[in-house]
Specification:
Blueprint: E1 11-14, E2 30-33, H1 41-47, E3 53-58, H2 60-74, H3 79-96, E4 101-108, E5 123-130, E6 135-136, H4 144-148, H5 153-156, E7 164-165, E8 171-175, E9 187-188, E10 199-206
Parallel strand pairs: 1-2
Antiparallel strand pairs: 2-8, 3-4, 4-10, 5-8, 5-10, 6-7, 6-9
Length: 214
């Protein structure tokens, strides 16, 4: 296991793929697998020139069929990207121990979630293939009462300089509000709307409750 970032006591961060499995540690609510996606660059340059709206639902096998069809019709020069998504889906399956999933790959040109928030789920995997990555907060940077009272980001943040950001291409797993006994990680989308930016974002969720009988 790679060492934890000493500044981010609720995070497990490193360059070892297996670090994502450590999301189940009681004291952690975000896991970040740092990686280089230079091998995907050529395909991503092609993909950003066309809007992507791809959703798939079901087992790994069913999602594989759906994604194969979508890529054959809309992203036929992006075999490496397809392979990477399918590899991440299998990894998410190993981490969650579930058998049914929702996969979404989209081009995004808005700020989406502007407020720091926790997802209403157990675990979500995200990867920003193009554009700026997700913003997240160390637990010590959060006023939880302000968050629960539905205050804005200025009230939630104890120190704006403590905001963290996932790098483009890195894989992140976030604990949500339904994960048993967890303090969910607060995060939000980066601001891109103001400067006309775009992102290609992968999101993977479970369609069923996680099994914690490990």
């Amino acid at each position: 296991m790679m060492p934890t970032n000493i500044l981010d006591n609720n995070a497990i961060i490193g360059k070892d793929l297996g670090i994502l499995r450590d999301i189940h540690m009681k004291t952690k609510n975000i896991a970040v697998y740092q990686r280089n996606i230079a091998s995907l660059t050529q395909g991503l340059d092609h993909a950003i020139n066309r809007p992507i709206e791809c959703q798939a639902n079901g087992t790994v096998e069913e999602i594989t069929l759906s994604l194969n069809r979508y890529f054959a019709n809309a992203l036929h020069l992006n075999e490496n990207l397809l392979e990477d998504i399918l590899n991440l889906l299998v990894l998410y399956e190993q981490v969650t121990k579930v058998s049914s999933f929702q996969v979404s790959l989209n081009t995004i040109s808005t700020n989406m979630c502007r407020r720091f928030h926790a997802d209403n789920n157990e675990l979500r995997m995200l990867c920003t293939y193009y554009g700026p990555g997700t913003l997240w907060l160390p637990d010590y940077a959060v006023d939880r009462k302000a968050y629960l009272d539905r205050k804005d980001n200025q009230k939630i943040l104890l120190d704006e300089s403590l905001v963290q950001q996932v790098d483009t291409g890195d894989v992140v797993i976030l604990k949500g509000s339904l994960y048993p006994g967890a303090i969910p990680v607060l995060h939000r989308s980066p601001g891109i709307e103001e400067n006309g930016g775009e992102r290609i974002l992968l999101s993977i969720d479970a369609n069923e409750s996680l099994s914690f009988s490990r």
